[in-house]
Amino acid sequence: MLELLTCSEMAAADGRTIAGGTPGIVLMERAGQAVAERVLARASGRLRVAVLCGPGNNGGDGYVVARLLAKSGHDVAVHALVPPDRLRGDAAEAARGWAGAVLPLEGWTADGFDVVVDAIFGAGLARDIAAPVDSVIAAVNESRAHVVAVDVPSGIDGDTGAVRGCAVEADETVTFARRKPGHLLLPGRMHCGRVHVADIGITDATVADLGVRTAANAPGLWSDMLPRPDAAGHKYKRGHLVVASGGPSRTGAARLAARAGLRAGAGLVTVASPPDAVAINAAQLTAVMVRPVDGAEGLADILGDARFNALVLGPALGVGEETRRMVEVAAAAQRHLVLDADALTSFAGNLAGLWQMVTSAVPSGVVLTPHEGEFSRLFGEAEGVAQARSKLERARAAAAASGAVVVLKGPDTVIAAPDGRAAINENAPPWLATAGTGDVLAGIIGGLMAQEMPAFAAACAGVWMHGAAAAAFGPGLIAEDLPEMLPRVWRELLELLFSTGN
Ligand SMILES: NC(=O)C1=CN([C@@H]2O[C@H](COP(=O)(O)OP(=O)(O)OC[C@H]3O[C@@H](n4cnc5c(N)ncnc54)[C@H](O)[C@@H]3O)[C@@H](O)[C@H]2O)[C@@H](O)CC1
Ligand SMILES: [K+]
Questions:
Q1: Whose CA is nearest to atom 43 of ligand 1?
Q2: Cα-Cα-Cα-Cα dihedral sign, residues 103, 104, 105, 111
């Protein structure tokens, strides 16, 4: 159930289900039933419900909801954007099932309603909201009624999560078959409230046949690729991660990443330190080792030892030629690579160089972990990025343009692979946005890759574990706390794996 369907994939799933013998009106009836159940679940007495219906099938769902709630004894008012005789197909049929009055949507006010059912626009939203719907949405958002959105809050683009002009702020959203990207991407996610997924009879096989490439990031996506504790395990079998440190005044970021890599399960972790920063690093490291490594040449020397199988390059490493050469050396040596921060910025405006570096590292896999600023410096000019309609599409275009797995960070981090797979993360609490947490993320992903977890799976798992660690700690978190929460996250993950028999 982790797949996320675009509006056109959802339409295809509807179409195939209808072609398979389930009439569209039956799907609409089930959709309306699921929404009505959410409203009824809250009812302790007679509710005054406003059902706001648009001109398409989302409005059709609304008429079904209205009929079912009235039948259950609630006081229902239908307000519609167009008169029922202007509806077509299933929506027209659903409207015929509503015996009550249909009042205009224009000028609707929230007075006295306990519940608003938002069935104005769903997957068919095609342009920005204009008058008169804009003032109705404003009235919905100002009202104290409980707002239940059908499929998506009206005004939210289901594919991108964008607000088209203005959008309903729902308390609950009932969607069908699977969630859509717009339920997870910001700002859409903030408008949905709690999201329920209702089964309307679209089978798993129908969804599987669509070849969906987008998923919500959760353990089910990658748990079978997680490194497992092995009784016969040996630290040398769990990889040796190298994290490059900046100069004497810029060493903290590498140590954060290194500790996170160790907690993520890498067998050994070494901080590769400029010689003049070795004393500083050594004074603050215990389980993590430190080794003097002088720039790209020094790195090439130590990579003669095949046991150093994964590297994190970038946190506070410095922007420029030397950093770029270090990245190129590591890529040419075909090590698993996580590139963050300064390593990314060192390739700004040099997409061709980035591509060349990534392709020389193949098949080891390269993961890039830019935040928005680094992303635009790196990929602003890349094919498909400027035209992309959403964060999801931008990350996907960047992965295709670079050949690397791209982790585009933020409250709705998107992880995209060059082959088109993508995942949207949703477990990051707001307090994760604090200094140094990006270094920790790079370290976790590097630690998983050191254990030979494939790049896309390691990136997805790393992002999820990072969010779970922050959620487990709670507010007040600083970056140093994150690695210390990983044992708890591991325990929960492993319990989950054993309980599901994976
Ligand atoms: N058989 C199906 O395909 C099913 C569809 N379902 C519902 O159908 C919805 C999709 O229905 P539709 O494709 O008819 O799309 P919508 O009902 O979301 O809206 C399409 C209509 O709105 C108009 N419109 C779009 N943007 C507008 C704007 N900014 N201002 C004014 N008018 C605008 C369009 O011209 C069109 O008339 C789903 O969200 C879901 O609620 C469910 O009933 C389940 C089954
Ligand atoms: K809606």
A1: 28
A2: negative
Atom 11 of ligand 1, nearest CA residue: 57
| Residue pLDDT, tens place only, 383-423 | 899 999 999 999 999 999 999 999 999 999 999 999 999 99
Fold of 7-212: Rossmann fold (3.40.50)
* Distance separating alpha carbons of residues 237 and 240, to the nearest angstrom: 9
Where do the DSSP E strands lie in 317-358?
336-339
Instruction: Report phi then psi at 250, rounded to 5.
Output: -140, 55
> How far away, in angstroms, is 156 Cα from ligand 2 center?
8
Identical fold between 7-212 and 219-499:
no
| This prediction's pTM | 0.97
124 is an annotated ligand-binding site residue: yes
Distance 152 CA to ligand 2 centre (A): 5
The domain made up of 219-499 has a fold known as: UDP-N-acetylmuramoyl-L-alanine:D-glutamate ligase (3.40.1190)
To the question of whether residue 474 is assigned a binding role by annotation, the answer is no
Query: How many Å lie between the centroid of ligand 2 and the Cα of residue 122?
Result: 5
Q: Domain boundaries in the chain?
A: 7-212, 219-499
Q: Is 159 annotated as a binding residue?
A: no
